[in-house]
Amino acid sequence: MNTNDAVATRVLNLLKDKKMTQYRLEQESGITHGAMDRILNSQNKTVTLATVYKLARGFNISVMEFLDCDLFTADLEID
């Protein structure tokens, strides 16, 4: 798994856990629909820290809470 896959999986898990729609996350985070689709489908070449910050803000959690997940402690492929 690479970092982009890990971010996509984390977002999908948080959407489910928080019973939140993709549309609401887009509105709360300020990430456009097209960009969100690329994130969720792991089509981005890289996910920046700024994007992670926006995602965390959209979920109303800190960046540290977003990254506090087994997905990010495993050996990730770095592209």
Structure description:
There is one protein chain. With 79 residues, the protein is mostly helical. The protein has one domain (3-73): 434 Repressor (Amino-terminal Domain). It is built from six helices and no strands. Helix 2 packs across helix 4 (49-59).
State the helix count: 6
| Highest-level CATH class | Mainly Alpha
Gyration radius (Cα, Å) is 11 Å
Backbone structural class: mainly alpha
| Unreliably modeled segments | none
**Can you tell me the number of structural domains?**
1
CATH topology: 434 Repressor (Amino-terminal Domain)
Q: Give the termini separation.
A: 11 Å
Overall morphology: globular
Assembly level:
single chain
Largest sheet: none
Estimate the helix proportion, in percent: 55-70%
Return the string of H and E elements. Answer: HHHHHH
Q: If classified by CATH, what would the architecture be?
A: Orthogonal Bundle
Q: Name the CATH homologous superfamily.
A: lambda repressor-like DNA-binding domains
Mean pLDDT: 93
In short:
With 79 residues, the chain is mostly helical.
Question: How are the SSEs ordered, and which strands pair?
Answer:
Layout: H1 3-17, H2 22-29, H3 33-40, H4 49-59, H5 63-67, H6 70-73
Helix pairs in contact: 2-4
